[in-house]
Amino acid sequence: MLIASVVTGVWLLVLSILFFGLYRFLRKLTKDTGEGELIKILTKILKVQKDNEQAVAVAAREIKRLELQGKSHVQKIGIVRFNPFKEIGGDHSFSLAILDGDDSGAIITCLHTRERTRLYIKPIKKGKCELELSAEEKKALEKVV
């Protein structure tokens, strides 16, 4: 009789712990739903879940759109400073490569002398230029491709 009472007491303790854990889980699950029948609460939870799934789908589409749009923005910049004329001191001239995600863009080269400054722009498509590039322009392009 004593053994049956101990086993029953232990069993009651185990069931109480399991029930309390389930109770805490359900309270946490339904904390924002207010009072009501269980079916109404679960229906409301399912509606919130469906709304969340739709919001996630909209966010995923927007992220995809932004990723595609972002490829056309400037993403790579390489610059090389150089002295094109030995008689003038300092590296005041430069070649600047500006490319997007598809390796398309332009190379801007500025040649500075005492008398004037000249600026040249050459288009780049897919990392290649149809015009001949100077050594400095090639270095600037190699930095970013």
Report what the structure shows.
The chain crosses the membrane at residues 6-26. It holds the Pfam family DUF4446. This is DUF4446 domain-containing protein. With 145 residues, the chain is of the alpha+beta class. The protein folds into 2 domains: 35-70; 76-144, no CATH class. Helix content is 49%, strand content 21%. It has helices at residues 2-29, 38-70, 135-144, and strands spanning 76-82, 93-99, 105-112, 117-124. Strands 1-2-3-4 form a 4-stranded antiparallel sheet, covered by helices on one side. Strand 2 (93-99) and strand 3 (105-112) form a beta hairpin. The longest helix has 33 residues, at 38-70. The chain is rod-shaped and about 110 Å long. The protein starts with a helix and ends with a helix. The relative contact order is 0.10. The model has no long low-confidence stretch (mean pLDDT 89).
> Which sheet architecture does the biggest sheet show?
4 strands, antiparallel
Count helical runs.
3
Q: Can you give the mean pLDDT?
A: 89
CA distance, first residue to last residue: 85 Å
Give the ordered list of helices and strands. HHEEEEH
For this structure, the quaternary state is single chain
Shape: rod-shaped
Number of domains: 2
Structural class: alpha+beta
- Range of helix content: 40-55%
